[in-house]
């Protein structure tokens, strides 16, 4: 039996708690003294969901294949506790992420949408932007040494949150309405999404200074244009090429006006073998080299979860998810973790080419998100990132919903009275 939602049964309390939980992740989880707030909200999500679904006859929890892969990954990395006790905190974090991801997958699968997550995430980013305005007095930055962060403690983390906000705003913007006709409310929603896309892009380029996020702005813009390019007729394709070229060119010139453009250009100079005076790039390059050496010493099993920080002088992660997993958990850990993405991408590409608009839309959203996440992993450790697992949970939940809906149609849930 599939868990698609009956028209008259909504998880109102769960929706509210889920929106609040996502909201608090951005505002409080990066402050050690306030991290108990999102943890408490996560418990509220679990409690409210269990309370509401117990009133639905025949409800069954689902566990998609990618989530099973993550569970296997956790079991494998827990074996490192046999030879080191330094991984206990990390294991606790991974187990927490798995459990809340399991709940979110089932919420999205049951309801067939993730509006509450989108609302909570975008609302938190708006509050963070207002906080920046209050701190800076404006949203204009002319000091290349000043990289803003708001509540998130790190400008790169803030840039990641802003990019995820762009993905969620984009999904809402390009989603085809379920009813025909025009309405003022729909126009306001679309206009708000456009404004948020512009605002978040501006903050990424001109305020955070995050190189990978700046590149992602171009990457996302190209993917949106490419999607429309594939869907239209020949003459419209030419128009899209001309308009798209103009937009991306203008974005590049705007980027050159950023005080952080030099940070981005240093990457290309480094790739060309040129000498670059950039302490951050040099240190990260050294970290990745040391992670590679650790992996070469134990290529199959690695040294144990989170051991890179303890076996090197850096006292932090390697800033590359692939090398972090290889050095800590070996080839086995890397394969187990990225099997999550492989299975999700296979399904997402199938949805993308579907003739059903809803499936094609979610397929594009999933492919864009997953490719961006994989691209980020070159310069980011993400396997225990809350933001990543919120988005992965969305994709798993909505994909499972569409799959079961296509196979059996939406059966009604029976509500006890």
Automatic annotation (TrEMBL):
<feature type="transmembrane region" description="Helical">
    <location>
        <begin position="361"/>
        <end position="379"/>
    </location>
</feature>
<feature type="transmembrane region" description="Helical">
    <location>
        <begin position="117"/>
        <end position="136"/>
    </location>
</feature>
<feature type="transmembrane region" description="Helical">
    <location>
        <begin position="330"/>
        <end position="349"/>
    </location>
</feature>
<dbReference type="InterPro" id="IPR007016">
    <property type="entry name" value="O-antigen_ligase-rel_domated"/>
</dbReference>
<feature type="transmembrane region" description="Helical">
    <location>
        <begin position="12"/>
        <end position="30"/>
    </location>
</feature>
<feature type="transmembrane region" description="Helical">
    <location>
        <begin position="90"/>
        <end position="110"/>
    </location>
</feature>
<feature type="transmembrane region" description="Helical">
    <location>
        <begin position="237"/>
        <end position="255"/>
    </location>
</feature>
<dbReference type="GO" id="GO:0016874">
    <property type="term" value="F:ligase activity"/>
</dbReference>
<keyword id="KW-1133">Transmembrane helix</keyword>
<keyword id="KW-0436">Ligase</keyword>
<feature type="transmembrane region" description="Helical">
    <location>
        <begin position="213"/>
        <end position="230"/>
    </location>
</feature>
<feature type="transmembrane region" description="Helical">
    <location>
        <begin position="156"/>
        <end position="175"/>
    </location>
</feature>
<feature type="transmembrane region" description="Helical">
    <location>
        <begin position="65"/>
        <end position="84"/>
    </location>
</feature>
<dbReference type="GO" id="GO:0016020">
    <property type="term" value="C:membrane"/>
</dbReference>
<keyword id="KW-0472">Membrane</keyword>
<dbReference type="Pfam" id="PF04932">
    <property type="entry name" value="Wzy_C"/>
</dbReference>
<dbReference type="InterPro" id="IPR051533">
    <property type="entry name" value="WaaL-like"/>
</dbReference>
<keyword id="KW-0812">Transmembrane</keyword>
<feature type="transmembrane region" description="Helical">
    <location>
        <begin position="36"/>
        <end position="53"/>
    </location>
</feature>
<feature type="domain" description="O-antigen ligase-related">
    <location>
        <begin position="198"/>
        <end position="337"/>
    </location>
</feature>
<feature type="transmembrane region" description="Helical">
    <location>
        <begin position="187"/>
        <end position="207"/>
    </location>
</feature>
<protein>
    <submittedName>
        <fullName>O-antigen ligase</fullName>
    </submittedName>
</protein>
């Amino acid at each position: 039996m599939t868990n698609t939602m009956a028209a008259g049964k909504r998880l109102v309390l769960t929706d509210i708690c889920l929106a609040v939980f996502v909201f608090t992740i951005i505002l409080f989880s990066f402050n050690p003294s306030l991290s108990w707030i999102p943890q408490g909200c996560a418990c509220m999500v679990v409690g409210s969901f269990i309370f509401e679904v117990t009133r639905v006859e025949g409800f069954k929890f689902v566990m998609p294949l990618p989530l099973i892969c993550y569970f296997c990954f956790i079991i494998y990395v827990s074996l490192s506790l046999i030879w080191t006790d330094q991984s206990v905190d990390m294991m606790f974090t991974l187990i927490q992420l798995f459990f809340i991801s399991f709940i979110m997958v089932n919420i999205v699968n049951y309801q067939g949408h993730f509006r509450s997550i989108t609302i909570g995430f975008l609302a938190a980013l708006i509050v963070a932007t207002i906080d920046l305005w209050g701190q800076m007095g404006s949203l204009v930055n002319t000091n290349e040494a000043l990289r803003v962060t708001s509540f998130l403690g790190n400008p790169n983390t803030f840039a990641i949150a802003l990019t995820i906000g762009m993905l969620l705003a984009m999904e809402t913007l390009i989603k085809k309405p379920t009813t025909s006709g025009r309405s003022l409310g729909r126009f306001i929603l679309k206009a708000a999404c456009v404004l948020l896309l512009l605002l978040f892009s501006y903050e990424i380029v001109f305020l955070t200074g995050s190189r990978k996020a700046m590149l992602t702005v171009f990457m996302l813009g190209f993917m949106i244009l490419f999607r429309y390019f594939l869907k239209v007729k020949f003459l419209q394709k030419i128009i899209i090429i001309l308009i798209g070229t103009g937009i991306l060119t203008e974005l590049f010139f705007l980027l050159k006006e950023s005080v952080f453009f030099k940070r981005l250009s240093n990457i290309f100079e480094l790739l060309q073998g040129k000498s670059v005076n950039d302490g951050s790039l040099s240190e990260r390059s050294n970290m990745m080299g040391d992670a590679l050496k650790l992996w070469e010493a134990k290529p199959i099993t690695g040294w144990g979860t989170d051991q890179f920080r303890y076996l090197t002088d850096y006292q932090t992660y390697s800033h590359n998810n692939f090398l972090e997993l290889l050095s800590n958990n070996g080839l086995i850990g890397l394969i187990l973790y990225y099997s999550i993405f492989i299975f999700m991408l296979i399904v997402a590409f199938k949805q993308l080419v579907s003739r059903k608009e809803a499936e094609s839309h979610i397929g594009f959203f999933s492919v864009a998100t997953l490719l961006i996440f994989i691209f980020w992993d070159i310069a980011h450790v993400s396997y225990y990132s809350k933001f990543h697992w919120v988005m992965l949970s969305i994709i798993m939940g909505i994909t499972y919903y569409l799959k079961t809906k296509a196979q059996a149609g939406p059966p009604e849930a029976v509500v006890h009275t």
